[in-house]
Structure formats: C-alpha cells, structure tokens
Amino acid sequence: MKSISRLALLFLGLVAMTTTIQSCKKNFDEPPVEEYPVLTPNATISQIKALHTVGNSPSLINDSLVIEGIVVSSDEKGNFYKQLIIQDDSAGIEIRIEMSSLYTDYPVGRRVWVKCKGLFVGDYQGNHQLTINDAGDRIPEGMLPQFIVAGAKDQPLVPKTVTIAELKSTVKYRNMLVQLNDVQFATVDTNQNFADAVGGLSVNRSINDCSGNTVLLRSSGYATFASDKTPLGNGIAVGVHSSFGTDAQLYIREPNDLTMGNTRCTVSVGGNLITIAAMRATFGGSIPTNSKINGYVISDRTTANLVSQNMVVMDATGGITVRFSSTHSFNEGDQVEIPLDGGTLSEFNGLMQLEGISSGAVSVVSTGNAVPPTTVTLSALNASPETYESRLIKISNATITGGTTYSGTLDLNDASGTIDLFTRFGATFAANPVPCGTLEVVGILGQFTTYQFQLRDPAYDVTGGTPCGGNATLSNISDVRAQYTGVTGTVSGSIKIRGVVISDRAGANMISQNLVIQDSLGFGVTLRFTATHSINLGDKIEVNITGASLEEFNGLLQVNNLGLTSATTVSTGNTVTPRVATVAQVLANAEDWESTLITVQGVTISGTTYGFSNTITDASGSVALYTRTGATFSGTAVTGGTVNVTAILSQFDSSVPYTSGYQMLMRNLTDVTP
Which of 91, 370, 373, 388 could form a disulfide with 394 if both were Cys (CB 3.0 to 4.6 A apart)? Predict the structure, then answer.
C-alpha cells in the first residue's frame, strides 16, 4: 500500500509539473497586449479648418483644442513629402512635419490625436494645413510629442466614393481619401510615365470619367513609381484629394491605388459645336457655355518650334493657339474636340490663346489627317494678319534671307512683301542650313509683338531652291567688312572667307558660339555660330557666309547666324604672327585692327587677379584687358612687373563698368610673357 501511495504521489507530481510547464509555455507564446493612449477630442477637423479663411494669413490656435483622425497619406513610395494627412468624418487636413519616413511611425490607418494649441492653421492653394508658425514652416521632429499622440493602428478606413464633378464643385473632400469609379486616363496620358524621374519633376496626368469630366493625377518625380506606366484601361482610382488653386488634383499613395483593368468607355465631349472663328469673335467677352470646337492640330510638337504646352488647332473658319498648363501629347494631324467650359481667351504679346482647358478634357476624334495650307501673298498676309493668325499658310515664289541657318529671326520674302521667319533656338532644325533660290514655304502665322511665320519642320515645309554657296567665291575679310554700312544687313553675294583661328575655345574667354579668324592680309572678323562649335586655336578654316547677317554687337562687327556646317577645316596647327604696337597705336587704329592679334610690349597689368577690371598700361596710354568670369584663367593672379601681352582687339560699348569701348582679350595665360 505504501508503494502504491508513493506511485500515486509521483503521478500527481508529474501531472502538476506538466501543467506548470504548459502554463509557462502558453504565457511565453502569447505576446503582451500593446496598450495605446486614448485622448478625448473636443473639436472636429472641420471646426479647425473653419478657424481660417482660404487666402488669408495663417491663424494661431490659442485654445486647447484636440482633434482625432485616421492617417490617409503615406510617404513610403515618395509621392508625399514631409506631410501627414489625417481625416475624420467631417473633413481632412494636412500636417506639415520636418521628418522623413513618416509611414514607419504613422502608417495608413493609424489613429492619431493632434493637440492644436500653439499651431497655426493656414492653407496652400486652398488646401488647409497645420504648421508651426505663420510662415507655414513644418513642425520640427523633436516637437512632435508636444502636438501629436499616436493611437491604435489598422483602424477601419473606407474611401469616400465620389464623382469627379463633386471633387471639382465642392471643397469638402480636400485632404480626404476618395474613390472614383468607372474612370480612365485620358487617351494622351495612357501608357505614359507617372512623372519625370530623370529630372525629378512632378507631372500632371488627366483622369476622365465617361462623361468627359477631368481631374488631374499629380505624381512626384521622386516617387518610386515615377517611371512606371499609367494604366490603359478603365476602373477605380483611390487617392487623396487635393487642389492647386482651381485645379482639382488626386495623389495616390502607390500604383495599387489604381485598379483599371476594364474595357475603356467612349468619352463623349459634350456641348454645342461652334466654329473657331465664332469662338475668336467672343474675345473680350465670354465664350458661350456648354460649347466645344472641333479642329485639326497643325503644329508639330516633335520639332520643338513651339513651347511644349502649346498646340495650334485649325478648322475651315480659322485657327487658335491652345495653351495647356503642362506638356501635351497631341500630334500634328490629330482631329480633336475641345470642350470650352472653363476656358478663356487671352492675348500673349498679341497672340490670341485659348487657356484654362485641361489636356485630359480634349478628345482625339481621328489621327493622321493632312491639312492643306492656304496660299496667300505676303502683302495679303500683312494687310489682314488677324484673319490668318494661327492658320497654316503657304507662301509661293519666296526667298529666305538674313542668315545661313534657321535659328532666330530671318526674312521671308516674296515679290509683294516681307515678314519675319522665326525659329526657336531649341527647335530640332535650328542649326539646319537655309536653302537659296526660289522656294515654297509653309508655316503657321504667329505673333510675338509683331507677326511672324513659324515652320513646323523645313524637311516638309520648305521645298525648292538649292543649297547655298555651292559656287561661293573666296573673298578677303577686308571686303566683307567693307560691306557693313552701319546698319544690320545680309552678306551680299555668294561668298566664302578663309583665315586662321586666333581665338582659343579651350581658354573660354569668348562665348562658345563665337570665334575670331584673321587672314593672310592681316584683317580679322568675329564669327558667331548658332550653336557651340569645336574649332580650335590654329585651325585654318573656310567659312561660307552666303546669306549670313552682317551686324555690330555693342560696336563689334560680326558675321552672325552661321550654321556649324558652314565652316570647313582646311588645316590645323597654324600660327599667326601678332602685330606689335603701343597702346596709343592700338587705339588710333582700332576699327582697322579690330578682331586681330596684337602684342603690346613693356606694359603693366592693373589689379591682383584677372577679371573685369584689368587694364594694361605702357608709356603711351592704357586700354582695358577684359576676362570673362567663365574663362579658365579668371581669378588667377596677375603677373606683376613689366610684361608683354598678346591679345585680340575687341569692342564692347555698354554701360557695364570696366567694359566700355575697346578692349583686349587674352586667349590663355601664355599670352603674358616677361
């Protein structure tokens, strides 16, 4: 019996031990319950927003007001920056915080309380904000515990389902998480990068509903998805509603906020169709409500001869330049319908423009259309330019003069008159050579204070003629200089000049488009190309200057508007023996010796470093020794004592200190010798 009792006791002990072990194991597996603080709010977000009037200076909150909200923003993917956006049932508001990676402490769905006393409530472009001061600065990270208390995570957060029309007509959803159903990116914004990741630039893309209403989706160039492509289909867009002035905007947290795998709907641009001429006639008044225009794009965005926000549209009655708020993607030959509600007509340097229309609201009806130009004479064009503004025009039996390349302003001529032919420096064809002879020229009539003709692409807008200078005659530089009559003109005749380059592009004491050549007779001239050249000191070159502009720039005679292809290198490594003269002789013969190489011996150089204000002085007088800020030797210590200086004689008549009149330009530091 004793043995049985001992066995029983042993069994009971094992059971107790097992129970204890299991109990310990259970306590080990279960994590401790995380406890969060709980504050009692005494104000709603809408009540805080009501303390500030949009457009006024931020208002200090003096009362001990506490609001409660759920976090709806996330900076994890980089589309929100140092901002925390919370909402309650009444409204949403942005809190500006000087802290990155906010999502780690304040993820989407976390409950937070904001103790508002001491903060300022203001707005930026209509979006209410809480800031640390009336300048709109962010709350320092170290001060966050004073104002923000974090509560439980993963709180229920259901976006408010709204329409684009509601977003654009009311402010109550700003800084709130919203959902748009049955929407899609505008045709021109499908399969496009969300933003410019290379340049780090934010980009607007348009989202439409099937009734043609539009909201802008704005994405940061620093977002991790900036280079991702926008969806092609129709579906749901979830994001935080914002605005920029009157533009309704949407910010997504990540691409998964967009679910657009459905078939696209056909967007109908509503409104009554009116002609472009009828719309232009309303200038100074109001465009009729619920109206639209239908026309063909006649500008070519790919050649960049218009700014990227502009396009020109034409119908049978007239044309109009349309200016969007950002770069558009419409192509020449697209037939488009443009709803006019919200649009205004204005003039920019005389050119009538249609503004205030979102590119996403424009519907592409068809593509690849050919628009025939209207053939007119320049006398008819100049007599009634408003009739032809922003229309496609053809000038027959024309010539182009005033330069060898298209860049800048040239003269378009026919037997009846002349008009400016303007090409932007950034156009893809700016440096292309201008043909000689009789031409047919097609372009768009624009206006920038004065009327001007603009090409789309000379490859198809300019026909006929022959390459200039095919039989150019070699001329002396002195003969070219003698053509200048005191006013800007065009080089007369089909001629070319030859000389050795005496300027040094490596020394950078001359802008990168310019160089100076001197011929065997001792005459020189400054040449200005339309782009940076790669011609070196000592190169002997032959330059076709047929049709180039002969003009003075602040007193310095130069051959301007030369294309890079107009210069041919004959040989390299040549030297030019400089003319030796006193300062007095230089000044007495300045016009004849301009743009030539001169050595002045036995001079002293003023100043301690090479810059704007140096002079060289000998026994006969003084002359300016000028050094550009960008020169490689700018700021280098001046050689003291008596030295010899070799330099190019130049001229710059202006009110800028130290640069008035004739001046000597060193090429590099080897131009100063003992």
Answer: 373
Q: How far is residue 615's CA from residue 610's CA, in Å, rounded to a whole number? A: 10
Phi, psi of 277 (to 5 degrees): -60, -40
Q: 259-268, 276-285, 343-352, 425-434: which range is least confident on average?
A: 259-268
Q: Tell me if 639 sits within 8 A of 672, measured CB to CB.
A: yes
Q: Kindly report, residue by residue over 167-208, the tens digit of the pLDDT.
A: 888 889 999 999 999 999 987 788 889 999 998 989 888 898
Residue 254: alpha-carbon gap to chain centroid:
26
The per-residue DSSP string of 187-207 comes to GGGTT-BSSBTTTTB-EEEEE
Residue 242 has pLDDT above 60, yes or no: yes
Strand partners for 196: 201
User: Residue 219 forms beta bridges with which residues?
Assistant: 203
Domains of the chain with CATH codes: 45-150 (2.40.50), 160-262 (2.40.50.140), 272-366 (2.40.50.140), 374-466 (2.40.50.140), 473-571 (2.40.50.140), 579-673 (2.40.50)
> Is the model's pLDDT at 655 over the cut of 50?
no
Classify residue 561 as exposed, middle or buried by CB count within 10 Å of its CB (0-12, 13-18, 19+): buried
What DSSP line would sit under 80-107, residue for residue?
S-SEEEEE-SS-EEEEEEE-S-GGGTS-
Q: What's the N-to-C CA distance of the chain in angstroms?
A: 127
DSSP labels for 329-360? ---TT-EEEEE-TT-EEEEETTEEEEES--GG
Sign (positive/negative) of CA torsion 256, 259, 260, 263?
A: positive
50-59, 224-233, 652-661: least confidently modelled range: 652-661
CA distance 550 to 479: 12
pLDDT(603) > 50: yes
pLDDT of residue 66: 97
Distance CA 502, CA 578 (A): 10
E strands in 210-309: 214-219, 234-244, 247-251, 258-262, 272-273, 291-297
pTM of the full structure: 0.49
Q: Does the pLDDT at position 44 exceed 60?
A: yes
- CA 546, 549, 550, 553 dihedral sign is negative
CA distance 540 to 574: 7
Those residues whose C-beta lies under 8 Å from the C-beta of residue 372, and which sit 6 or more positions away, are: 392
Q: How confident is the model at residue 417 (pLDDT cuts 50, 70, 90)?
A: very high
Altogether, the residues listed in the chain come to a count of 674
Q: CA of 545: how far to CAs of 42, 499, 548, 558, in Å? A: 81, 13, 5, 11
Helical H segments across 108-163, by residue range: 144-147
pLDDT band at 313 (very low <50, low <70, confident <90, very high): very high
Own/partner pairs, 2-8, CB within 8 angstroms, 24+ separation: none
Query: Would you place residue 305 in the very low, low, confident or very high pLDDT band (cuts 50, 70, 90)?
Result: very high
For residue range 126-138, list pLDDT tens digits in order.
899 999 999 999 9
Give the pairing of strands 495-501 and 579-580.
Answer: unpaired
DSSP string over 454-502? E-S-HHHHEEEEE-TTTTPEE--HHHHHHT--SS-EE--SSEEEEEEE-
Distance CA 515, CA 517 (A): 7
Rg (CA), the chain: 36
CB burial of residue 433 (10 Å; 0-12, 13-18, 19+): buried
Mean of the per-residue pLDDT values of the chain? 90
Beta pairing, strands 234-244 & 247-251: antiparallel
Contact 128, 122 (CB under 8 A): yes
